[in-house]
Design a protein that fits this description.
alpha/beta; Rossmann fold
Length: 855
């Protein structure tokens, strides 16, 4: 085959100033030569022509035509162009870049042989590698180069390539857009497909740390072989099938593809040949459940292989694209194209023959078994996979690049007098213009193109713009629709930097229009939290139920969170419910029961008091100090009634009165019992002849005991109220589902001092009564007092541990029960025998009878 370095693929149009273009329409594969062999140029074959990339040359040609027909931009100056092919090959790119400089087909380095070809700037290339190869030559001569490669060829472009400009946004915006798109759809378990070369390595080194930082895991990274390696694989389909099978894993449904032409070509071959090898099911097998997220290099430029390949594999794919707007007259320009109008354009002839599968009669290639090109074929009949009539992203960049050069030249012609040597009566003297003089005007360029978009460069020579997000919808007839479904534009106002229109997206038919999932495992439901699996990537986790008191109200929460203090988790731990108030209410059964008991015992006590008052002159009432008996009954009546202070919602007043009233009244009750017991003992001791104890028997001693014991308790309560009194309190934490409305004791020490003193009195009273239990029965209350105090002490001894082990209204209920039980015990044990004699055995309630029984 003919050496491709000598193939006559070029296109030239005269002009006062020339724009050089290094395009990539063809790709060749150079046979690898072993290190031990003599170097040679041995090309395997012309693998493919990329039909769609020819539109980039047409957009450049249309922009030049548009400018030359506009008398305002460059009056009296015409733009021309010189186009060479790079063949996606470094050596060819260097060689043809030098041809642009010399102006001749033969190379004469550092000489400008054709004075008519006044090169002012260059456009190219499409890939980062080709751009760098061109820039290596042009930057030495400070010739402006406007590329449309998506990613910069070097890290610090401004420093290393000061003459280099890019008609595309910052590559950083593309990486951020990919990450934000994945996060938007909650795709955190993805695969990456990249080329097996330095560019692919740079892609993953930049993207993967950004993914990890946002919690996105890489399930698999698949390397697409270099073109030369891919051609070697064609001899055996097994490697392609093996790679195809790895892509068919159902565990990974979303792939981010570094969609360079080389990568996409190999991926397409892999899917296609895997389908051929395994039958029709092979293609569908790989496409099932896959969402392809493509970088901005992709535009369905899959070579002529598309004629056999089912593009529906890529149905629903999402890609980032250089922002484009419709150039209204461009479709009309394409409509009138034909072989007669494109005389001298070698690219057009190759393009025409390729897309229409025909051959011109004077073609340099001897193509048999194909029709002859008539020139009447219509571009409108071509599917979009081969050629589009609206500008693609890279064509739009080429169009803007030509206009940027023209606008820079226009600014020179209207600039200040310091460029007088270049201007004559408002007309640019182009022969005197040097390419390096264009730089300050290009850097500061800012204009609106014919589509209404602003074109300007940032400080690094990159276009100030963002990326569009495109949804590719394919059809069985190999046509497709390019739908804009969002954008990534950091230059816009806050809140609109990243936008996706979900309703406009069409997913692959396999998903039935449901949002595809990209997860290592199923999401954790609300009520559960994530827990990392040992030895697995951080996106893989187990789902653990929330602990007590915590909830998770969304899927896939990293941790459960505590409900507010006044709320508690529901049964499923998915939401917080308001806590109810916990206090002993008058309206609930337990409260009503205690009210009934308290009133009933109060009524009984009042009846007993009435009976004793009515029978106050009888011996059984007069025995053991009648006044003490009345005091005891009145105190017991108040004890029963004070239990009502513990029922109902605690307020400041009843919190003050609860424990104070209880402590003082019960102290009076126990003091009365103690006084009665001591009176009984002294009364019997006073009956002995010659005793001096008789002077102690009387009301003065009993009143002193009653008053003294009561005042001590009252003093303790006074100190309590003055230092740290009880107060209403909301206990949020003791009960899981309720707020305890309680009276905080203020000082726990003082509370237990009150109980301790009461216990001390009860112990003394019990001891004295126990010692006097064997006195004669008729006048002896000691036996009944002993039994009553035994009941009293038993109740209050069991009260303390029970009180401490309960919470809320049940703790209050324990205290009310203890008050009622101990008071009822005293009432029953001391007064029921006397009431029995008074009411039922009244014949015994006479002095003679009592003396006779005592004898």
């Amino acid at each position: 085959m003919t050496d491709p370095f000598q193939l006559p693929y070029k296109h030239y149009q005269r002009g006062d100033v020339i724009i050089g273009v290094i395009g990539t329409q063809f790709a060749y594969v150079l046979d690898e030569t072993a290190f031990s062999e003599y170097p040679k140029r041995n090309f395997i074959d012309e693998l493919f022509l990329v039909p769609k990339t020819y539109q980039q040359l047409l957009s450049m040609e249309y922009a030049v035509k548009e400018i030359n027909e506009n008398p305002i931009i460059l009056p009296n100056i015409t733009l021309g162009f010189q186009v060479y092919e790079s063949f996606a090959n470094a050596r060819t790119t260097y060689q043809n870049t030098l041809k642009l400089l010399s102006g001749l087909e033969r190379l004469v380095p550092n000489y400008k042989c054709d004075k008519e070809k006044h090169l002012i700037a260059a456009i190219g290339g499409r890939s980062t590698d080709t751009s760098l190869h061109i820039a290596t030559i042009l930057d030495r001569y400070k010739i402006p180069q406007i590329a449309y490669c998506v990613l910069a060829p070097v890290m610090n472009v401004k420093t290393q390539l000061p003459s280099f400009y890019r008609m595309v946004p910052k590559g950083e915006h593309l990486y951020k857009g990919i990450v934000q798109l994945l996060l938007y759809f909650h795709w955190i378990w993805i695969g990456i497909i990249r080329s097996d070369d330095e560019s692919g390595e740079k892609f993953v080194q930049t993207l993967i740390p950004m993914l990890f930082q946002k919690g996105i895991c890489i399930a698999v990274t698949e390397k697409m072989p270099a073109i030369s390696q891919a051609v070697d694989m064609l001899s055996s389909l097994e490697p392609l099938t093996a790679k195809g099978n790895s892509l068919s894993s159902p565990k990974v449904q979303v792939y981010v593809v570094n969609a360079r032409a080389q990568t996409m070509g190999c991926l397409t071959w892999m899917i296609y040949f895997s389908g051929v090898f395994e039958g029709a099911e092979g293609v569908e097998k790989i496409s099932i459940g896959k969402v392809w997220v493509m970088t901005a290099q992709w535009d369905f430029s899959f070579q002529t292989l598309h004629r056999a390949f089912d593009i529906q594999v890529y149905n629903g794919a999402l890609s980032f694209s250089i922002h484009t707007s419709e150039v209204l007259r461009f479709p009309r320009f394409l409509q009138i194209l034909g072989p007669k109008l494109q005389q001298g354009d070698d690219f057009f002839r190759a393009f025409w023959e390729n897309v229409f599968s025909c051959s011109f009669y004077d073609s340099h290639e001897n193509q048999k078994d194909v029709d002859t090109c008539t020139g009447q074929e219509k571009l409108e009949s071509l599917p979009g996979t081969l050629f589009e009539r609206s500008m693609t992203g890279q064509s739009y960049s080429t169009y803007n690049a030509v206009h940027a050069i023209a606008q820079a030249l226009h600014k020179i012609s209207t600039s200040n007098p310091k460029h007088r040597a270049l201007i004559d009566r408002g007309i640019l003297k182009h022969p005197n213009l040097q390419p390096w003089q264009l730089h300050p005007f290009l850097r500061s360029i800012s204009f609106n193109n014919s589509a209404g978009d602003m074109v300007s460069f940032n400080e690094d020579g990159e276009l100030i713009a963002g990326f569009d997000i495109i949804n590719w919808v394919t059809f069985p007839n190999k046509s497709f629709s390019r739908v804009k479904v969002g954008k990534m534009d950091p230059e816009t106002i806050e809140g609109q930097v990243f936008i996706v229109y979900d309703e406009a997206i069409t997913w692959h038919s396999w998903f039935n229009q449901a949002l595809p999932l990209a997860l290592c495992n199923a999401k954790c439901h609300p009520g559960y939290r994530k827990e990392k699996k040992e030895g697995e990537p951080f996106c893989c986790y187990d789902c653990i139920p929330c602990s007590d008191g915590k909830i998770s109200d969304q899927k896939d929460m990293n941790d459960c969170f505590q409900c507010p203090e006044d709320q508690f988790p529901n049964k499923n731990k998915v939401r917080c419910l308001p806590k109810g108030l916990n206090f002993l209410s008058f309206t609930e059964f337990l409260g009503i029961t205690f009210v009934v008991l308290a009133l009933s015992f109060s009524l009984i006590t009042a009846l007993v008091l009435g009976i004793f008052i009515k029978n106050q002159n009888t011996p059984i009432v007069k025995a053991n100090n009648r006044d003490l008996t009345y005091s005891l009954l009145i105190s017991l009546l108040l004890c029963f009634l004070c239990s009502l202070l513990f029922i109902g919602r605690p307020q400041i007043l009843n919190c003050y009165l609860r424990q104070i009233t209880f402590g003082v009244i019960f102290s009076i009750v126990v003091a009365c019992v103690l006084a009665k017991t001591i009176t009984v003992v002294l009364a019997f001791m006073a009956t002995k002849p010659g005793t001096k104890i008789r002077k102690w028997v009387g009301k003065r001693l009993s009143n002193s005991i009653l008053l003294g014991c009561s005042l001590i308790q009252a003093s303790i309560c006074a100190v309590w109220l003055s230092t740290s009194p009880p107060f209403p309190h909301l206990d949020m934490h003791s009960l899981a589902e309720e707020i305890i409305v309680e009276c905080n004791e203020g000082s726990v020490t003082m509370f237990y001092c009150v109980l301790g003193y009461l216990g001390f009195l009860a112990t003394v009273s019990f001891t004295v009564a126990f010692l006097a239990r064997k006195l004669p029965d008729t006048f002896n209350e000691a036996k009944f007092i002993t039994f009553s105090m035994l009941v009293f002490c038993s109740v209050w001894l069991s009260f303390v541990p029970t009180y401490l082990s309960t919470k809320g209204k049940y703790m209050v209920a324990v205290e009310i029960f203890s008050i009622l039980a101990s008071s009822a015990g005293l009432l029953g044990c001391i007064f029921s025998p006397k009431c029995y004699i008074i009411i039922l055995r009244s014949q015994l309630n006479i002095k003679d009878q009592l003396i006779r029984r005592n004898l």
